UniProtKB/TrEMBL annotation:
<feature type="domain" description="Reverse transcriptase">
    <location>
        <begin position="1"/>
        <end position="95"/>
    </location>
</feature>
<dbReference type="Pfam" id="PF00078">
    <property type="entry name" value="RVT_1"/>
</dbReference>
<dbReference type="InterPro" id="IPR000477">
    <property type="entry name" value="RT_dom"/>
</dbReference>
<protein>
    <recommendedName>
        <fullName>Reverse transcriptase domain-containing protein</fullName>
    </recommendedName>
</protein>
Length: 95
């Protein structure tokens, strides 16, 4: 059985804000949402702090996804790290 609202559905602008109203937020990250895309943003000079903040938020989101039976499309999910200079860091999220 499939769940969700058809793309372009006329009722989507009304239902979507209600659907994501209780999405977890934290004080260490910023949640940016546009249409059905979501970005989790964190900023700090220490990349370990940033990684920890993002991972903590991802854990909360994972619990929320399970609660509402939402399947995250891994093929449409990306992690992007921006830094000044050319530093190389290990990936921040593990599977």
């Amino acid at each position: 059985m499939r769940a969700g609202i058809p793309q372009g559905g006329k009722i989507l602008p009304v239902l979507y804000p209600l659907y994501v109203n209780d999405i977890p937020k934290t004080h260490k990250t910023l949640l940016g949402m546009y249409a059905d895309d979501t970005a989790i943003l964190a900023k700090n000079k220490d990349h370990k702090y940033t990684a920890a903040a993002l991972n903590q938020h991802l854990v909360k989101l994972d619990d929320w996804f399970l609660k509402w039976k939402i399947a995250l499309n891994v093929n449409k999910t990306e992690a992007v790290y921006f830094a000044k200079g050319r530093r190389k860091h290990k990936p921040i999220a593990s599977q």
